[in-house]
Amino acid sequence: AHFFKGLTMNFDFSSISKAAERLKSGMESMREQAHKTIVTGESGGGLVKVTMNGTFTVRSIEIDESLLSDKTILQDLIVAAINIAHDKVEKSMQEQMSSLTGGLSIPGMPF
User: Fold this and answer.
1) What pLDDT, on a 0 to 100 scale, did the predictor assign at position 19?
2) Which residues pair with 51 in a beta bridge?
3) What predicted TM-score, i.e. pTM, was given to this entire model?
4) Of 25, 36, 66, 92, which sees the most CB atoms within 10 A?
5) Residue 92 phi, psi (nearest 5)
6) Could you give the CA distance from residue 30 to residue 40 in angstroms, rounded to a whole number?
7) What is the DSSP string of the chain?
């Protein structure tokens, strides 16, 4: 029951350690960049605009006055604009993560 008998494993631990440090440094940089990243989600042809940063914090909401008389439509457009902004942040983070990992998917890592 020796599955690995005769198998030689040559790991360059210094290389792995350096790669891990680069990944850690890149993740810290991504966290800093997330606070600076600003996206805007628009709905209703631009009648509602939601600005969000890369940590998914809504920074502002702009609503065209023409929508103020219809509460239901306004609520739907706000939700849609928030979801669009959220998707843009996610896509931005996925692109940054992909460039950091060279396109490799790392289990347990966000995105």
Assistant:
1) 74
2) 40, 60
3) 0.70
4) 92
5) -60, -45
6) 19
7) --TTTT------HHHHHHHHHHHHHHHHHHHHHHHH-EEEEEETTTTEEEEEETTS-EEEEEE-GGGTT-HHHHHHHHHHHHHHHHHHHHHHHHHHHHHHHTT---TTS--
